[in-house]
């Protein structure tokens, strides 16, 4: 463990930023990230790690460090709407991957301790303008994968912004496989788990946490009358339970609406089941990931108010649950009033979160194709900045350049939704970040292959 941490630090190869400062970025094309269109000759001011103001006519504070962004674009940092960033360095190497567990626990798993801020995928995404990422575990032996987090990609060891932000589960084809080979089994397993959690939750004192429950001595457990049963509860559980106590306890805040429940589903019929689940358990705060066939039930998704983090590039029936996939999916759902963001589930999600901005650019181009449904430029940028943040309830904290938000700002060489643009300056919480990666250092090392520049590996 110590060796791996030291190796990661050497690969990063940069000093850790220590504090934020007052920064004014001037004369750039500024995009707020809230769906509005870019502002020419704008200014962004950051103080104490937070955005003070952004737009035209914003005053530059005395003593601020001024960055001239003439000819460049300034946006909020990209928020990876769905990823497994920080959980894997090399997918093919088991020891370097912490995305899932084959152990006895499922819902109780918390991925926060497994996040590796020194992982090369984190550095690569930071260098491409990704400043925050919604990170989820993968399923092991259950439809419940565990609890995901929001992280930042800063060059330090304090990556986790919000641990235990949501519980992640798989429905659809993956969920049915984990449940024994049937969608019906997956749905009944989900409802059974929620009822086990409800039973346990009724035996907890008001305000008790999961750790409180796990450590409470049996004699200390309160007698709580269950209104649906004729017996008292002393924290004892039924004999036919399927979840471990820790897993059941981890689902209590989900049932109480204190933790999001993020569900991966693609097929229209599965999406309708998620909507029905929300009616059955009205305190659930649901988020849907994937939704390749979402456009076919967009009116019902909009009516439910459930946010969707969609895969924007799905345009072919790659499997039987995505037969109606189309690249117009996001545009059609948005037009119907669905709260949509862009993520990269099942799309190299351990490494390639930065692709989301390319996909957003594709949707801008799609708006010009007859018969297709795309997005305006401002809305496309919001799909990879403020909309993911809003989907997980953190729109007031990250994802835009509105006053009071965290100072996650990127200065781009040109239009950030253009594949040819590059991040030239990245700030996270107002601190400028290093953009060097292992790849850039290798490129620099081998740019000049003149004899004598590098030691010869072999001699004739």
TrEMBL record:
Region (Disordered): 206-234
Signal peptide: 1-20
Listed Basic and acidic residues bias regions: 210-234
Protein origin, superkingdom: Bacteria
Name this protein carries in UniProt: Amidohydrolase family protein
Lineage of the organism: Bacteria, Pseudomonadati, Pseudomonadota, Alphaproteobacteria, Sphingomonadales
Organism expressing this protein natively: Sphingomonas arvum
Pfam family, one: Amidohydro_3
Keywords: Signal
Annotated Amidohydrolase domain residues: 328-430
UniProt keyword Magnesium, yes or no: no
């Amino acid at each position: 463990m110590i060796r791996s941490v030291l190796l990661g630090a050497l690969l990063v190869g940069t000093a850790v930023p220590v504090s934020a400062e007052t920064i004014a970025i001037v004369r750039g094309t500024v995009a707020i990230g809230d769906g509005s269109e870019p502002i020419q000759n704008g200014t962004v001011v950051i103080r104490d790690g937070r955005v003070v103001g952004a737009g035209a006519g914003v005053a530059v504070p005395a003593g601020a460090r001024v960055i001239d962004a003439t000819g460049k674009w300034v946006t909020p940092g990209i928020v990876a709407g769905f990823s497994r960033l920080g959980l894997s360095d090399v997918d093919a190497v088991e020891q370097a991957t912490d995305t899932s567990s084959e152990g006895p626990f499922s819902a109780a798993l918390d991925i926060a301790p497994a996040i590796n801020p020194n992982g090369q995928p984190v550095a690569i995404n930071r260098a491409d303008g990704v400043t925050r990422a919604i990170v989820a575990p993968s399923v092991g032996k259950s439809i419940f994968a565990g609890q995901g987090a929001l992280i930042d990609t800063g060059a330090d060891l304090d990556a986790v912004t919000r641990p235990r932000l949501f519980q992640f589960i798989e429905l659809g084809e993956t969920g049915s496989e984990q449940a024994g080979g049937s969608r019906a089994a997956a749905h009944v397993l989900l409802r059974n788990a929620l009822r086990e959690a409800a039973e346990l939750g009724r035996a907890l004192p008001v305000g008790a946490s999961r750790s409180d429950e796990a450590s409470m001595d049996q004699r200390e457990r309160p007698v709580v009358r269950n209104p649906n049963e004729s017996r008292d509860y002393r924290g004892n559980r039924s004999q036919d339970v399927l979840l471990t106590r820790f897993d059941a306890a981890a689902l209590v805040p989900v049932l109480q609406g204190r933790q999001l429940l993020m569900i991966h589903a693609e097929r229209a019929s599965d999406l309708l089941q998620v909507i029905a689940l929300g009616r059955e358990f009205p305190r659930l705060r649901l988020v849907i990931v994937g939704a390749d066939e979402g456009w076919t039930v967009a009116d019902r998704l909009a009516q439910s108010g459930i946010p969707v983090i969609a895969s924007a590039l799905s345009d072919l029936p790659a499997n039987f649950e995505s037969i109606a996939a189309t690249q117009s999916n996001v545009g059609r759902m948005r037009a119907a009033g669905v709260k949509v963001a862009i993520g990269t589930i099942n799309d190299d999600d351990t490494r390639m979160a930065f692709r989301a901005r390319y996909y957003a650019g594709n949707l801008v181009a799609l708006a010009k194709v007859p018969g297709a449904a795309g997005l305006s430029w401002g809305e496309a940028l919001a799909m990879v900045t403020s909309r993911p943040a809003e989907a997980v309830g953190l729109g007031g904290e990250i994802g835009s350049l509105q006053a009071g938000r965290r100072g996650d700002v990127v200065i781009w060489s040109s239009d950030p939704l253009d594949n040819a643009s590059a991040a030239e300056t990245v700030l996270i919480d107002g601190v400028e970040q290093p953009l060097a990666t292992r790849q850039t250092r290798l490129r620099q090392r081998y740019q000049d292959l003149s004899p004598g520049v590098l030691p010869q590996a072999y001699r004739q």
